Amino acid sequence: MARFEQELKWLALALGLASTLALVNAWHPWPMVLGLPFCLLWAYFGWLRTEPQLKYINIVFSGLYVYGLVKYFLPA
């Protein structure tokens, strides 16, 4: 994975932008679908090593995205 770190950073940027665009345009559930891999990449790599709490924030958001996706796709 470290070999492809730069490419994964670009992928994370694209996922973040796409997630934001989906959120602004209310294209549900796409903000969660695109935001989950974004958060997982950030949590795995911890790209801002000077701010370790960012890793835990991304773990929390990943859990919330999983919860939201399960709630969205499972019938009520």
Automatic annotation (TrEMBL):
- Give the record's keywords alphabetically: Membrane, Transmembrane, Transmembrane helix
Which residue ranges does UniProt annotate as crossing the membrane?
A: 32-49, 56-74
Its organism's taxonomic lineage begins at: Bacteria, Pseudomonadati, Pseudomonadota, Alphaproteobacteria, Rhodobacterales
Q: What's the protein here called?
A: Uncharacterized protein
